Amino acid sequence: MPFGYKVFVICLCLLASCSSYAAEKTVIRIGVQASGTADWELAALQNIHPEDFQLNIQRLANTEAGKIALQSGAVDMIVSDWIWVSRMRATGSDLTFYPYSNTSGALVVAKDSPIHSLAELKGKRLGIAGGELDKNWLLLQALAGQEQLDLNASAEKVFGAPPLINEQIKQNRIDAALTFWHFAAKLEVQGYRQIIDGKGILRGLGIQEDVPSLGYVFKQSWANTHKQAVNSFFNASKQAKNQLCTSDNAWQKIVPLTQTDDVATQAKLRQRYCEGGVDHWGEAEQLAANRIYTMLRKLSNNQLTGQSENLQPGTFWSIE
């Protein structure tokens, strides 16, 4: 056999081998909001070069679009919360949750505001991002209730999207803002003062564990079929987050995704993002999640959680 032909055959074999290897990779179709912080992590993850999977990232308009895409099978995974997962499981769905972040929202006021405690919110104009069933709003009411303060009745409430709430407090149309963490961080850089954050609210309610607020949500049946790739993705995701929090070079690569040119704001966003790392996720945290669920069920009169008295079995996915 001529030498040139042998080389040609060897190359064909190598190509076939590489193609076969590539074909064995599980494609994970993940839907994320274009402006969401999960996009930061996924961008950093691209530099890790995982062997078990490849990502197909689909940008979505909002959280509701993500839920629809997941349920219809258009994507395999989204970022959402475990309350919704439990509610869906109660209706027969096999969705499950793996933690992504325990960063939560915060209550902020102007630097020179006379408000320094929840009691001083009485009679004030309070802006609330996320609507009447926002988890932090419900839990804040419970915390105020411990001081015999009915925030729902005594504060003038303004509900709106986070950007609108930020603008309202800047224009002095509201006295305090309960908003999502990255919007609170942007206000802090501009001199606004934090009264309490989501973790502080939970501490006040007796929950000492750090319970993740957001996570990756996917169908359990799909994950069982692609277990190695799914677990590999979660490990790679943690590596990516760690890189963003420890490597300035890695952080600089995703800075454009923060959608701000202000260095101080970028630094504050990074700080708050990294504070949301999930260091522990086990039985204690999951039992705490069930206690939070019970509180939210009562506070929302079942509107947020659905009728189930407890978190549904299988709500949380565990890496084996």
From TrEMBL:
Alphabetized InterPro entries for the sequence: SsuA/THI5
Cleavable signal peptide: 1-22
Keywords assigned by UniProt, alphabetized: Signal
Ranges of residues in domain SsuA/THI5-like: 54-241
Alphabetized Pfam families for the sequence: NMT1
Protein's UniProt keywords contain Calcium: no
Entry protein name: ABC transporter substrate-binding protein
Source organism of this protein record: Candidatus Methylobacter oryzae
